[in-house]
Amino acid sequence: MRILTTYEYSEISYTSIFEDARSLESIEKIKGLENLFIDKYKGMVNFKLSSISFKNFVGIIKVDDLLIEVLPKIYSAGSDNEATIEKNDIYKNLNYMINKSSKLSIRNIDIANYGNSEDSIFLDFFINMFLQELYTNLFKGTYKTYVSREENLRYIKGRLLVAENIRKNFIPNKIYCKFDEFTEDNLVNQVLKYTTKLMSKITNWRQNQILADNIIHAFNDVSDMHITSETFSYIREDRLLGEYSKLLGIAKMFIDGQSFDINSDNQLNNFIFNIDMNIVYQEYIFELLNEYKSEIFGNNLTIRSQYSKEHLIYDNSNKGRFLLKPDIVILDNNNVKIIIDTKYKKLNASGHRNGVSDKDLYQMFGYYHKYNQPLIFLLYPKYQNDISNQYRFEKHKEPVVFINTISLENKLYTPQGEHELVESLKRLFENKVTDSLA
């Protein structure tokens, strides 16, 4: 398999993908690529006359024996295939961010000692971390819960379904009942089994395939189901779910981001896998701030994610419309003192307002007036240059909106790399936070 690595906001020429980009076979493959992006990924990739350009896309594109790997823009030095850090460290950083943002326990995985195989791709790392965590949790015990079942029995169990009993049992030698059964053949395990099977079909790592085989064997008594993004809405959390709740988050990310079908060999030859970096970045920053809140803010504060209390407008019945939901809020005695909004967008030091959009500032204006005028921080990942700006909503008043970039180029998966990022966040908030709490 041939692997090409590039970054968001870059271009790959057709001649670098195909030996003869003008041949009929190559033209058909280009059309095949375009067809993959028609619906689900429209707008992320632009097919030009002589090249493919990427926008907000991080993941894998596979067509036959060609695999294009698109890594986050924050690790690009500017040219299409030049990175600010080693590719293997990018893999580790990205998977560490994903796992931390999903609140997975990463203690079972030694990220620093991941291999450096030239055949490795980001997707193999992602799959390995999920399978290792799932395998470890299965050792503690397979998740079981009560599942409602209906069955014809020779005795009454649970509740007798009279109408069904009359319809199905002409000869009264059985009784049609509805009952709850405590079983491992439930929707949670069906999702995990389906995800594992899907991963085993597309990974290049032998160790992943072995892990997947062991997991599938452990799920031998779990029914095979076809899982879609909608399936997750039917899962109900309970106190027994525990760590499996976090694994479901990774499974959903995987199901949401892929374009292939487990039962279609053709789709396994041509597929897309995409990671929503907006969610990963937002949740990663929240988890860092929450874990190190006493060190960063130096106060006994409460941090909430996706805080939703106010609406932008109200209708004639005084019912709120257009819910205002900041990414992160800092609360002091239930009063919103600081709003932090993460923006996984590319800022440009030489651009108009450094590339901060009108829409983002209007959004902050709404937050400011509806949440009792807190300080507002917009956090963007550093692309090439550090950017730091501050604004005020009223003339001759103190700045209340702070726009900053933070660097994710260190080895975040190491204690030192994480400490350096925490220190940079601490410097960003110090003094300003103290003043807002005074």
Question: What class do helices, strands and sheet pairing give?
Answer: alpha+beta
**Which CATH architecture of the largest domain is right?**
Alpha-Beta Complex
Mean model confidence by pLDDT: 83
Number of helices: 14
> Spatial order of the strands in the main sheet?
11-14-15-16-18-17
Largest sheet: 6 strands, mixed
In one word, what is the shape? globular
In total, the number of domains comes to 4
What gyration radius follows from the Cα positions, in whole Å? 25 Å
Find the CATH topology of the largest domain: tt1808, chain A
Could you list the spans in which at least 5 consecutive residues all have pLDDT below 50?
A: none
CATH class of the largest domain: Alpha Beta
Task: Explain the overall architecture.
The protein is of the alpha+beta class and 438 residues long. It folds into four domains: 1-84, no CATH class; 87-142 and 189-271, no CATH class; 145-183, no CATH class; 278-437, tt1808, chain A (Alpha-Beta Complex), CATH 3.90.1570. 37% of the residues lie in helices and 22% in strands. It is built from 14 helices and 18 strands. The strands form five sheets. The protein has a six-stranded mixed beta sheet with strand order 11-14-15-16-18-17, sandwiched between helices. It has a four-stranded mixed beta sheet with strand order 1-6-5-10. It has a three-stranded antiparallel beta sheet with strand order 2-4-3. Helix 4 (122-140) runs antiparallel to helix 8.
In short:
The chain contains 14 helices and 18 strands. It has 438 residues and is α+β, with helices and mostly antiparallel strands. It has four domains: 1-84, no CATH class; 87-142 and 189-271, no CATH class; 145-183, no CATH class; 278-437, tt1808, chain A, CATH 3.90.1570.
